[in-house]
Amino acid sequence: MSVQTADADLDRRLWGGRRRALRRNLTALLFLLPTFLFLAIFMYQPTVNVIYHTLFRWDGFTVERFVGFKNYITMVNDPNMHVATRNLGWFFLGWMLQRLSPFLVAELVFNLKRERTKYWYRTLFVLPMVVPFLVTIMIWKFIYNPLPKIGVLNRMLGSFGLEEWQTAWLSEPSLVILALLLVSFPWISGWPFMIFYAGLQQIPNEVLDASVMDGCNVWQRMVRIDIPLVVTSIQLVAIQTMIGIIQDFAFVLIMTAGGPAKASLVPGLLLFMAAFRGDQMGYGATIGVTMFIAIFILTLLSFRYTTSPFARTRRTRET
Amino acid sequence: MTEHTVDRPFTSSPDAAQADLGARFTGSLHHAVLVFLLFLTFFPFFIAILTSLKSFQQLLLNFWLPAFPLQLQNYVMAWNEIYRSIINSSLVSLGAVTGVLLCASLAAYAFARIDFAWRDGAYYLVLSLLMIPSVLTLIGRYLLIVQFGLMNSLWGLILPYIAGGIAFAVFLLTGFFSDLPEELFEAARMDGGTELQMYRLIALPLSRPIMAIVGLLTFLSSWGDYVWPLLVLRSKEKFTLMLGLATFTGNTQVMFGPLMAGYVIASIPTAIIIILMMRTFAGAALVGAFK
């Protein structure tokens, strides 16, 4: 028996011929079947259905009339959409700062000397995560309660003798966005903090020691060493935040329902209102598709922007 | 560093003393800032717990401090109001977690361990769903639920939650299963083990931590969801906890005590689960999974 046939024989025993391949494919198919069944019904079908129906005037059930790109044109000219987009811009800036600011706190904790103290601060800062987000928002609704004797904020102002500052925080068009952005101040507890901290922990000790030897002060170290080395964590948080901000509207729905008037309306909420409160499913779908495109483009852009510093740190790490 | 600490007792120059004082000052400032931030972080929750133990009169008279007698009946009242929705939420979350873990682990096993035709294509087909925001499919899913006659049914929540959680779960689990040592599977294959046996007896037992994380993420997202139950559920006895809390608010202005008691009760199940999972959670496991 030559070496080659022995090899082929071994090959056949290990991997089999065509019949083995067929069996492998069938097994894989069975393993994948439940997943693809779920995805086909509840993910792919609705996505395609929604994208297709942006071209229709559609109430979801009976009325269905082809209108071409009219929904998109309506959306571009819709004054509600203009307000919603402008509001989203403010929320975008505010929430981005909010989600990235825990980095500074992570630095503060990370720069403590004793491991035990670090551990306790870390645990305490993430502890409020056990409270469901919706409960946190509702507690903040209580904080903003307009009654001077009940709302925590108003009551606090009252006890400092600042009665004239007491107001209905969520019903004041000029204040509502600021009030919403301040919810869950100081914004530390949450997974961005955990991710930043874990990122800092992964910086090699030699690098930190070297920075001490070279007489780096804390600020220089943060800007020159820590931020470049945890840039992937920052990028991760930024992208997740961006996707979340653009599509989440439950928060605004619960706090103000877009009000007063339209002072805190966001596109997601406009979608919700159009589709489920106004029977304009086609128009709602159009807003949804636009949001999807926006998220897609922004994600691609942010990857492009952040790849170069990432690549640079990778190279310095290897050498 | 060690050199420095050994040195310190012998230094007597005013310069060094001043530096030491400065370090101690920045040290305490450091702690002061952190403690203040902790205080701000916990303040709303303190107030909520305090308020949950007060009657309306006590709240008006004494806002910032505990008031006696403690109004424990607030908790009884809140419990009566929301226990039904806690049961519903538990059923929904358990269903979603079971479904996601079962489907996703099977699929991930195939992607990671079976060499089949169009494997990459199928994998990217699943991963592409991570790009699709849930708000886009909201309308389509709603129409499906109406057509399937699942309106006002807990199944109308469970099935879409399973579908919505699978993509990310497959992504995490495939990565994990691919990292398992090939020798284990090789040995099993030699002994004539089928893929199903290898999945059940090798892959699953070795992946408990990651399964726990996937389960936890699914649990938390289904437990805390508000918009989807708002669309699907109609009658109060079907409400999930978040919906129950939201409607509890609407009852009357004066019920702040029971309302806050309800919030406290609503946080207990998630608190228990997260604290039980702390061991898996802590460390870089979760973060490693995200990367």
Description:
The complex is a heterodimer of chains A (319) and B (291). Chain A contains 16 helices and 2 strands. In chain A, helix 15 runs antiparallel to helix 16. With 291 residues, chain B is mainly alpha-helical. Chain B has 2 domains: 51 residues; 213 residues, MetI-like (MetI-like fold). In chain B, helix 4 packs parallel to helix 13. Chain B is globular and about 75 Å long. Chains A and B meet through helix 2, helix 5, helix 6, helix 7 and helix 8 of A and helix 2, helix 4, helix 5, helix 6 and helix 7 of B.
Quickly list its features:
heterodimer; A: 319 residues; mainly alpha; MetI-like fold; two-stranded antiparallel ribbon; 16 helices; disordered C terminus; B: 291 residues; 2 domains; 14 helices; disordered N terminus
Largest sheet of chain A: 2 strands, antiparallel
Query: What is the residue-mean pLDDT of chain B, rounded to a whole number?
Result: 84
The fraction of residues in strands of chain B falls at under 5%
Treating each run of at least 4 consecutive H or I residues as one helix, how many helices of chain A? 16
How many β-strand stretches of chain A?
A: 2
CATH class category name of the largest domain in chain B: Mainly Alpha
Annotate the secondary structure layout:
The complex is a heterodimer of chains A (319) and B (291).
Chain A: H1 3-15, H2 18-53, E1 56-58, E2 64-66, H3 70-77, H4 79-100, H5 102-110, H6 115-126, H7 133-143, H8 152-159, H9 176-181, H10 191-201, H11 205-213, H12 218-229, H13 231-247, H14 250-255, H15 267-277, H16 281-318
Antiparallel strand pairs in A: 1-2
Chain B: H1 2-7, H2 14-52, H3 56-61, H4 73-113, H5 119-127, H6 134-147, H7 155-179, H8 182-190, H9 195-206, H10 208-224, H11 227-232, H12 241-250, H13 256-281, H14 285-290
Helix pairs in contact in B: 2-13, 4-7, 4-10, 4-12, 4-13, 7-10, 10-13, 12-13
